[in-house]
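lol ok so funny story. i was supposed to be doing the assay writeup but got distracted and ended up predicting the structure for this chain instead. priorities right. anyway since i did it might as well share w the group, maybe its usefull for someone
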Amino acid sequence: MHTDVRIIQLLMELRRQGVTDSDVLSALELTPRELFVPEVFQDRAYDNAALPIDCGQTISQPFIVAYMTQALELAPNMRVLEVGTGTGYQTAILARLAKRVYTIERHAALMAKAQERVKKLLLFNVEFRVSDGMRGWPGQAPFDRIIVTAAARENPPQELLNQLNIKGIIVIPIDRGGHGQVLVRIKRTAQGFQSADLLPVKFVPLLEGVAKSDGEAR
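and the output, tada:
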């Protein structure tokens, strides 16, 4: 058990902010965020704030990670697609709560480091892929849950929606231009899709393709 007093303080803060799912909070407690934060920011590992990482990306603030995970309504038998591996922090949280996690990252350098971190935590139910996240992972579809950690422009990619099971849920930031970004939860039903806005957010944009170089800005 990770007993750093900072994580206890963070968990208390997350509870005050509305993260009440005990399984989600336990997953955060068991996952040392300092493993995923650049060395220069080690003293801020448990701040409830986003921090810069390689390739012009960020590691989301713990509240957003916890809130999005809670919004997925995960169960232990579920298969989850994550679009945007980043440091692997969200990936590790998902791996503790789901049967299988399939994670996609467009930056090969980020993916390589994320794999090392997740392996170090002895989480072996994750499959990694450097690919275009907007296209999902057709060979492993359909998924019970999909989480996207970059903002789509106006609408979720149809290919991701198509890869959801009936009764499946996708949680994704949507950029509505002048109205800013909003986190959206979409449930698939036999009749179609039901969408609900959750809260304002700020993410890097969801881009097509694979990054040409590790230093490419998104």
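The radius of gyration is 16 Å. Residues 214-218 have pLDDT under 50 and may be disordered.
back to the writeup now i swear
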